[in-house]
Specification:
Elements (H helix, E strand, L loop, with lengths): L5 H9 L16 H19 L3 E6 L10 H10 L3 E9 L4 E5 L2 E6 L3 H18 L4 E5 L4 H13 L3 E5 L7 H4 L2 H16 L2 E4 L2 H9 L7 E3 L19 E6 L8 H13 L4 E6 L5 H10 L6 E4 L5 H4 L4 E4 L8 H8 L3 E5 L15 E3 L4 H13 L1 H15 L4 H12 L2
Parallel strand pairs: 1-2, 1-5, 2-4, 5-6, 6-7, 7-8, 9-10, 9-12, 10-11, 12-13, 13-14
Antiparallel strand pairs: 3-4
Helix pairs in contact: 4-5, 5-7, 9-13, 12-14
Length: 409
């Protein structure tokens, strides 16, 4: 039609037929609806075609060590299925580790390069077994963001693990970086089809920030508990141990205040802080300034039974914990427990039954509980015996069988 012929355009428009039949819009194919369908397909595919594959994003460098506890734990969880672990931590060179059904990948390069390569590797892994793959992330932040992108690009379900109790409030206050990561984590957790946490306490905090309760599953940590410990010789001084990372989260400043209060009351004790971390030099300074050089020492990190061999008591002074595995290790080692009310305290360690529990950040309460552990031997022995029996329910093989039964494996 001529561009400038107005009459011709008017006539043509008059002759256009009017649609009288209502069109039915196509149903929106949301990712959530898709993932529910895919999960059903995965279950059916596993029944017909073989075990599922799990693609896991993590920062755990130990997954590249075939002899590490982390690798053994993933092997247990893999069962007859396959686990492909993409580790986002920095390595000097690209690395691959493989044991049985578990393969782990590590990358060199800057943080942005590793993030990009992790996503590319994840897509390749899903492409290899597209109908039988689930994506999981061991944290809801950077690993969670990588897992989220791969799950959406490849349209497979996403599970996010929250092990650290990052939404109780304390972690976010530590730095502006944590505040930014907190926003990323809330988005990823909200988008995930399933969220796995290690305690009812963590579940409650996630519900409080808007994560739907029905998609949160509580699975306690399965711990390879100490066994066959040969106890050291007896001592007139009660020996507390504190195995941990030297970071603000662990509340070691509060612990040293409590130790100073014990010394003021002429309580005989010794406290060994075992581990490594950025607060090492400040810890040495606090020990000297509080006059605790004879009562408190700092030791390098130890493994397993070496931590508990000479211990009478264990103190966890943390401001927050996702679970608190060392609590279970102390219980299984017949070591008296004094802990702040975080992590597995309440659900695993029962206050007043398996150990003594105090408020977060309260040095006075902590000192009272530590003193009672030393002087009230009858109550302490009763709690140690109760805790030892309680810990048996959380030993890795037994708990792993329970979790499989719950999952219908």
């Amino acid at each position: 039609m001529p561009y400038r012929n107005q009459q011709a355009w008017v006539q043509a428009l008059k002759e256009v037929s009017v649609r009288t039949k209502e069109e039915i819009p196509a149903a929106t194919w949301s990712h959530r609806a898709m993932s529910e369908r895919v999960e059903g397909v995965l279950v059916e595919a596993e029944r017909k075609e073989g075990p599922m594959q799990t693609l896991m994003f993590s920062f755990d460098r130990a997954l590249l060590d075939t002899e590490s506890a982390s690798m053994r734990r993933i092997q247990d969880l893999a069962g007859e299925g396959m686990v492909q672990a993409v580790v986002l931590s920095h390595f000097k060179t690209d690395e691959i580790a493989q044991v049985d059904h578990v393969t782990a990948y590590g990358f060199s390069g800057s943080g942005f390069i590793r993030f990009y390569r992790a996503i590319v590797q994840g897509i390749r892994i899903v492409n290899a077994v597209p109908k039988r793959t689930l994506v999981t992330a061991q944290d809801p932040f950077i690993a969670g963001a990588a897992a989220y992108l791969v799950s959406r690009i490849k349209n497979v379900p996403l599970e996010v693990q929250e092990h650290g109790d990052f939404y109780s409030g304390y972690w976010k206050k530590e730095s502006w970086k944590n505040r930014c990561l907190s926003l990323v984590g809330r988005f990823v957790l909200g988008q995930a089809e399933r969220v796995r946490v290690v305690s009812d306490r963590v579940k409650e905090y996630l519900i409080a920030v808007g994560i739907k309760a029905e998609k949160i599953e509580v699975i306690p940590v399965a711990v390879e508990l100490p066994s066959g410990i040969v106890r050291g010789g007896g001592s007139d001084v009660f020996r507390f141990v504190v195995p941990c990372r030297f970071v603000e989260q662990k509340g070691l400043d509060v612990l040293l205040k409590a130790a100073a209060l014990l010394k003021q009351e002429n309580v005989s004790f010794h406290l060994s802080i075992i581990g490594r971390g950025p607060l090492l030099s400040s810890l040495h300074g606090m020990i000297e300034s509080k006059g605790l050089v004879k009562e408190v020492d700092i030791q390098d990190w130890k493994e397993g039974n070496d931590v508990w061999r000479d211990a009478d008591g264990f103190v966890m002074s943390s401001r927050y914990e996702g679970f608190g595995r060392t609590v279970l290790e102390a219980m299984a080692s017949k070591v008296a427990v004094v802990a702040t009310d975080v992590g597995c305290v309440g659900s695993v360690l029962r206050p007043g039954v398996d150990g003594r529990v105090v408020s977060i950040g309260n040095a006075e309460e902590l000192a009272v509980a530590m003193k009672a552990t030393i002087v009230d031997k009858e109550s302490t022995d009763r709690m140690i015996a109760s805790a030892y029996e309680r810990a048996k329910d959380f030993h890795r093989p037994r708990l792993f069988m329970k979790n499989n039964a719950l999952a219908g494996v």
